[in-house]
């Protein structure tokens, strides 16, 4: 899937067919996350970074080297603006982006799993025409009650993550001093005793 194809489907198929003011849950797949405007990185030429800063009226010292210019851009902490988010906002919808690596917080993953399971159970021949009909039938078996159950499961999971996150906040830090250990201390004491013996002779 490419960003162009996804954005076309999103604009022409999804947005016109959902309830006004919908919240659309989105993961971080690259084709969901094309930025409207990318900030300069180390792959940019120095002149392009300077032009980018100039276009925004941002001050910088002409003597700065490329890594310093990139660091200056990073220090601005510019929010990322995604094409999909803006397409949704234009139609009065909102995008809710999942944290990276947390597809388990998206109820659609549970629905896809159910749908694929139904397809496996009922697939007889595998011919394309038959599969298309079977897909429609299996999709119709995904009930509002199943959706509600999947959403409730995700809400419970999210609450569990919040609870565990709170537990981590309450933990005292564990500090391990790697500069000394008990054997070193004992050796130091023995050395002191040897010094005393030397002085008495």
Automatic annotation (TrEMBL):
The source's domain of life comes to Eukaryota
Region Disordered: start-end pairs: 176-201
User: Which Pfam families does this one have?
Assistant: DDE_3
Which residue ranges have biased composition labelled Acidic residues?
Answer: 181-201
Q: Which GO terms describe its molecular function?
A: nucleic acid binding
What residues does the Tc1-like transposase DDE domain cover? Answer: 2-129
Spell out the protein name for this chain.
Tc1-like transposase DDE domain-containing protein
Q: Which organism is it from?
A: Amphibalanus amphitrite (Striped barnacle)
